From TrEMBL:
Annotated keywords: Iron, Metal-binding, Oxidoreductase
Organism: Phlebiopsis gigantea (strain 11061_1 CR5-6)
UniProt keyword annotation of Iron present: yes
Organism domain of life: Eukaryota
Annotated transmembrane regions: none
Protein name: Fe2OG dioxygenase domain-containing protein
InterPro entries tied to this protein: DIOX_N, IPNS-like_FE2OG_OXY, IPNS-like_sf, Oxoglu/Fe-dep_dioxygenase_dom
Fe2OG dioxygenase domain residues: 189-292
GO molecular function, one term: metal ion binding
Length: 332
């Protein structure tokens, strides 16, 4: 079935989020890769959200990043706001409770976060990799009082980036494209990580002030780690029902973002989601947003366009798109 036909048939509402086994992600066997890509393709067209298991990222890498995040968020408020996102160019650093708003009908997101982008673990003197970051250009900032935070956060960052780089060829294959299709579009791949802390919300909760309001992600896909044992994330299906996406130990959530919807002329879904922490305890999560280079145009892939499905989106660059969304979310 063509991609366009598969998208036209994708009307059924999903009630759970599939798990994809990535044990074969490094396989060179074309039949194995095709089978893996086919299962990814189905989920991308029908759900836009999946879990991945056997992803190769060691538990201790994640656990160290979690421990470091907990330490960071327990710093005194004034220490955290020294690194406030508004104090440096390129949206790097700390954003406090209610300072972002992902849902325009809401009043603010009930989480605090810390945001950073590409940086070598051992800094290179003239690292040109990030020279082309448009609105996100700007060096990372790190808490001086917590020297171990940078190493733990960047170690996990690079592990997740490696996983993201292995997923792009599979997404290409899922779109009936050569596996290297995205290579020249992801040379300086946008890769922004946020560590997030959601305080518990008890009692009657105003629907307009939840952990993170209903939104879609902006890049091609997100690799999200959620703290085990705490349900908070929910995904909106085509029947407008909120489906729980509980943490499953040993997995990451991978969800598609708006850049992929634009590349695929709406064939791949960028699914609306939100998080509410009613667990009674603090909750931590760590998304990595993975996109194409910011100067790349989000042009529809020919196999996703037909006379019945003409191009649905104005062609803009990935950077222009992210800039629009940043303005709407942070108001600056
Ligand atoms: O914390 C979560 O589970 C979701 C976070 C999220 O959706 C985001 O940061 O875009
Ligand atoms: Fe999100």
């Amino acid at each position: 079935m063509s991609l366009v036909q598969a998208a036209e048939n994708a009307e059924t509402a999903f009630s759970h989020i599939p798990i994809i086994d990535l044990s074969d992600i490094d396989s060179c066997d074309p039949v194995t890769r095709r089978a893996l890509a086919n299962s990814i393709r189905d989920v991308c067209i029908n759900v836009g959200f999946l879990y991945v298991k056997n992803h190769g990222i060691p538990d201790n890498t994640v656990n160290s990043a979690l421990a470091a995040s907990k330490e960071f968020f327990s710093l005194p408020h004034e220490k955290k706001t020294e690194l406030d996102i508004t104090k440096s160019p390129g949206f790097k650093g700390y954003n406090s409770l209610l300072s972002s708003n992902n849902d325009p009908t809401s009043m603010g997101d009930m989480h605090e976060g810390f945001e950073f982008g590409w940086e070598e673990l051992v800094s290179k003197e003239h690292d040109q990799k990030r020279a082309n970051d448009g609105v996100m250009a700007g060096a990372n900032v790190w808490p001086e009082d917590l020297p171990s935070f940078r190493e733990a956060a960047l170690t996990y960052y690079h592990a997740a980036v490696e996983l993201g780089k292995k997923l792009f060829p599979l997404f290409a294959l899922a779109l009936d494209l050569p596996e290297d299709y995205f290579n020249d579009k992801t040379r300086n791949s946008a890769a922004i990580m946020r560590v997030l802390h959601y305080p518990p919300q008890a009692g009657p909760v105003d629907d307009r002030v939840i952990g993170i309001g209903a939104h879609t992600d902006w890049e091609c896909f997100t690799i999200l780690w959620q703290e085990p044992g705490i349900q908070a994330l929910q995904v909106l299906n085509t029947e407008k029902q909120w489906i729980d996406a509980p943490p499953i130990p040993g997995t990451f959530v991978v969800n598609l973002g708006d850049q992929f919807t634009r590349w695929t002329n709406g064939v791949f879904k960028s699914t609306v989601h939100r998080a509410i922490n009613r667990s009674g305890v603090r909750r931590y999560s760590i998304p990595l947003f993975f996109g194409t280079d910011y100067d790349v145009k989000l042009e529809p892939i020919p196999s996703c366009v037909s006379p019945e499905r003409p191009p649905q989106y104005e062609v803009i660059t990935a950077g222009e798109y992210v800039k629009e969304r940043l303005k709407a979310t942070y108001g600056h």
